[in-house]
Amino acid sequence: MITTLTRRTLLALTAAAIAAPVYAADNIVLRMSTPASETDQRSVALAEVFAPAVADFATYEPHYNGSLIAQGSELEAIASGDLEMSIASAQELAQFFPEFSIFATGYVHQSADHQVAVFNDELMDPFKQKVEDELGVKLLAVMYLGQRHVNLRQTKDELTVNTPEDLAGVNLRMPGTDAWQFLGKALGANPTPMAFTEVYTALQTGSVDGQDNPLPTVVDAKFYEVTNQIALTSHLVDLNYIAFSKEVWDGLTGEQQAAVQEAAVAAADSGRAEQLQKEADLVAFLEEQGLAIYEPDLAAFREHVQAQYAGSDLAADWPEGVLEKINALGAQ
Ligand code: KDO
Q1: Which long-range contacts (CB under 8 A, 24 or more apart) does 273-279 make?
Q2: Does 87 share its domain with 212?
Q3: Is the distance from CB of 220 to CB of 39 less than 8 angstroms?
Q4: Is the dihedral of CA 50, 63, 144, 119 positive or negative?
Q5: Portion of the chain with pLDDT greater than 90, in percent
């Protein structure tokens, strides 16, 4: 579902959260909602690294597979006091603050390290501040989701993807926000919006031709059971932010805030290391499952995608000079 949020809705949500009761600082329940499964590496990192590090004063309560809050509504839920944490995407943030689409743009981030450098750089400060002030959400750390690739039902004999032209007419499921749909089109495909939790069935029944996600997600969600190939387009080095309620944060002592911040960074660091290892290891597993895995003409994809963003409505919302700063951080 695509929600269009006006600034007035935003202010109303933030006002509601401010009016909500203050938590007892030694018994805080941190409900976290994600469309990801319990075995997804980001979920594991939060449960195994974040949760024990804050256990003295907070109970971490994860909800997986979108069972508490539907994908894409988590930030709104935090803003209205119905949720304390989520694993938020830049694409979701762009629904509220269009300039966040810069972090969701194809072929901008170059690696996991580049994501961290961007997140910790001062270029990020005004972005973080705005989310905090206007949505009541703190972005604590950047989690690595991985390099997204095109994963199709068609066998490689039926369709070999070398250039964006080969994706013409391919119904590619992408998550349901503008920034995602734009990326799907920029790849040359026909993007179909759909929640993550519906993708397996859609692939199984053929209501879509394919989907895009990093290899660990293809394995964790068992998409390999219902697809036949992966073209390693690497079109997005994808990230999520650990999003935390500002209202809860403000009720913590300085020491507790430091513990939460440190725990979030430690979880993101551990999840990133594990996810990178999985990306390296999983090609062999997927080939054993019978999938064809190959690299298309990456220069053709990069050129085509970048040309779509240049001069687009999305790019018009990017603050002056930020793309250059991001690129400079990637060159280091
Ligand atoms: C997806 O819906 O394809 C996506 O990969 C988008 C991400 O931003 C993230 O929300 C992720 O799903 C879920 O956490 C499930 O892995």
Answers
A1: 274/41, 274/44, 274/45, 275/41, 275/42, 275/112, 275/144, 275/145, 275/146, 275/214, 275/216, 276/112, 276/144, 276/146, 278/41, 278/146, 278/215, 278/216, 278/219, 279/146, 279/147, 279/214, 279/215, 279/216
A2: no
A3: yes
A4: negative
A5: 91
Residue 44: both structure tokens together: 């594991």
What pLDDT score was predicted for residue 173? 98
Pocket of ligand 1 contains residue 144 by CB under 6 Å: no
Residue 165 and residue 308 in one domain: yes
Which residue's alpha carbon is nearest to atom 7 within ligand 1?
A: 89
CA of 116 to the centre of ligand 1 (A): 19
Residues 87 and 200 in one domain: no
119: containing domain: 4-145+238-271
Residues 183 and 291 in one domain: yes
Taking residue 29's Cβ as centre, other Cβ atoms within 10 Å add up to 11
Co-location of 22 and 152 in the same domain: no
Confidence class for position 1, pLDDT limits 50, 70, 90: very low
pLDDT at residue 14 tops 90:
no
Query: Which stretches does DSSP call E strand in the chain?
Result: 28-33, 58-63, 85-88, 137-152, 171-174, 190-193, 210-213, 229-245, 292-294
Ligand 1 lined by 36 (C-beta under 6 Å): yes
- pLDDT tier at 7, thresholds 50, 70, 90: very low
Looking at the fold, whether 12 and 102 belong to one and the same domain comes out as yes
Q: What is the pLDDT of residues 293-324, one digit of tens each?
A: 999 999 999 999 999 999 999 999 999 999 99
- Residue nearest (by alpha carbon) to ligand 1 atom 15: 36
- Atom 1 (ligand 1): residue with closest C-alpha? 196
- Which among 219, 253, 271 is the end of a domain? 271
Checking DSSP bridges between strand 137-152 and strand 229-245, what pairing results, if any? Answer: antiparallel
On whether residue 321 sits in a domain, the answer given is no
